[in-house]
Specification:
six-stranded mixed beta sheet
Amino acid sequence: MTTIVRRFQFCAGHRIYQHEGKCAGIHGHNYVVQFYAAADELDDLGRVIDFGVLKEKLGGWIETHWDHAFLCFERDIEMRRLLAAVPEQRLFLCPVNPTAENLARYLLDVVGPNQLADTGVELTRVILWETENCRAEATR
């Protein structure tokens, strides 16, 4: 198996629902995500997949859904009500609390398989940097 890595950056707001500390408040991050894509065999040109395809499929998904959006846990009713009052606010309802760990796992288990379904490539690892010092990894 051969693996390539594609890195993306995006900005998003969130809060951690029912957090015991300061992350319960509204805040945001300049996230960095690394996608690890693997294939058993290389294509005719010697690639796992063209980096531009990863940019289009994975980067495009992030741009459309998470970049400059608020990542809100679907059960966080207070935050949903508050954000509904802001007409231009982009909102992504997360099926899980938007911790770095849950977001990395969501990218690996949901976004990757959906976006790469027709490529023959598997997403095997996602590293999500929430800050320069803190990251979460999800692997297969």
